[in-house]
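Please complete every field before forwarding. Incomplete forms are returned to the sender.

SECTION A: IDENTIFIERS
Entry label: holo-393
Bound molecule: magnesium ion
Molecule representation: SMILES string

SECTION B: INPUTS
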Amino acid sequence: MVGKCVLVVDDNPASRVFLVNHLRQKQFGVLEAPTGKEGLIMAWRDHPDLILFDPALRDIPDQEFISKLRNDPRTGQTPLVALSTDSSLARRETCLNAGVNEYLVKSAGALLALEETFTRMFAAEHPTDIPVQIEETKEEGKNGLLIVFLSAKGGTGTSSLCANLAMNIQQGQPEARVVVADLVLPIGSIGQIVGEQGKVNLVTVSDLPAGQTNSDYFYQNLPKPKIWQFQVLAGSPDPQQANNIKGERIGQIVDTLCSAYDFVILDIGRALSRISLPLIQKADMILLVASTDQSTVQLTKTVWDYLRTQGIDSRKICAILNRAVGLDGLTKTQAEEIIGLPIKTTMPYMGSNFALANNLNQPITLKYPTDTASIILKETATDMVKLAQRLRG
Ligand SMILES: Nc1ncnc2c1ncn2[C@@H]1O[C@H](COP(=O)(O)OP(=O)(O)OP(=O)(O)O)[C@@H](O)[C@H]1O
Ligand SMILES: [Mg+2]
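SECTION C: PREDICTED COMPLEX
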């Protein structure tokens, strides 16, 4: 990377000088422009290897600046990196749609993100002449609330509740960044519930080197199904691919998600494994989902007894009794007595309506807004967040 020429376009003098000095220290050749118009002239005249710019330029709208560069043969292929004070999704999307390669936000972790971006971009150009980054770097950034959903038995409604509660959290806090990650092996189901079975999933992400799956990678590549509003990291699409997941990457991925999102919501399903236990121990809140049949409630007690031996604080557990299997079964009090935990929420049996919403990839709250279940979901989401924040102190 040494010797590459970077053009910095930023009309904020303090920010521009800071970036120019930083890049010079890193042995880049640096050109600087204090306005968008001068930036365009220098870009076309001096052919920099990369253009770094703040999209909030006073003299040219961001979209116009980008498309002028993109539509000119001299800069059509030049890597464009936006470094902005604006973290809004709208600005990010405008810039990415107009043709920037990366959109980074000016923050504590920005220099590190910038370095990774440069490494990646110049590596793509000249695969052999950059040093390989072996050391793994934990990004600075947010310290998002980690919420995990698990159950003692399959079919208790864990994944559906995970997606639906996440949607309610996001709806209650539209500004927050919420991500749902499906860690259930060997096949995830969150993608199916929210109608998103794209190219990016747990397998594809864990296949990439850690240095590449940074905050920006997730912001830009994880799909955001419109009506659900959160971003989703779908699970393994089939058992064959699940076998190839590198277990040690899961912890790194979750760490990065926590540094990039305000709420990281994991579906762990019924897996209490070497991989999931550390995540449960790290979680701010654990949603333990049980259905009302005797055997599930008994197994839930077994799971809770085990978690207690692993040092899990009972205040972090939010037990949900979900009538997933019909109207019969144990009452809330009976279940509480067996499990030895207070039940925070009881979800009513919704008959085929629940499956219908799932099959249509719709959130319950939107499909049946006046149903008791919708009200309960909303209240539970609010209570969960309050409790998790309080426990964080
Ligand atoms: N309260 C409810 N009323 C009616 N049906 C429900 C309710 N909760 C869940 N279901 C149904 O139960 C089934 C299982 O739900 P889901 O896939 O969310 O459970 P899970 O615990 O994640 O299962 P798995 O073990 O397969 O991961 C779905 O068909 C769902 O529609
Ligand atoms: Mg599930």
